[in-house]
Amino acid sequence: MKILIAEDDAAIANSLRKNFADENIESEITSDGNATLTIFEKEKFDALLLDWRMPQKSGLEVCKILRKKGFNIPIILLTAVTDVKSKVEALNIGADDYITKPFSFDEVLARINAVIRRKSPINIEIIFGKMRLNLVEHKLFVENTEVKLTEKEFDLLKYFIENKGMILNRENICQNVWNYNFTPETNIVESTIKNLRKKIELNCDKKLIKNIYGEGYILLEE
Question: How do residues 134-147 score in pLDDT, each as one tens digit?
């Protein structure tokens, strides 16, 4: 993660940078609006901490310009302003959040992580070889052909793909696919794997799920 700290108060900026370094997070500092806009032409950042009142151009102006230029970076305004009207204005011009001074570093870090999560694109598909799992519709496609799976077969395949190349024992599978905190006496795991194998091997023309005797199962890497 790389953060840009746009703050003209050197004490605040340096304190933030030190705290980020302690968390193994890279950061850069700018101290005026023009320098903040210029650095975006040269470097890429994961989030921007933007002081409301800075020389050259204010934080609001910088935010407005960045959004007009198409930058979708998470922006958090640092401000001493407390009135609701000003905060609403900041959000309306494109800021994702604001933090009122004085603040704690823990709050800053939590807000950054929150806005980055909100801005991150939602992964709606998982691709593995010829297989494509649609996580919204819970459907499996091999190339462009849909392969009908039960709900548990889908969950099981998703778990295998997320842990491809790893040996998964019966207990792992029960806990993560069936949400059991115990291993059932039935052969529900084995029968579901057997049915899933038939369906994907029929459409993929190769054996992908291998039984490791005495250890568990593994989805072979493509």
Answer: 887 889 998 888 99
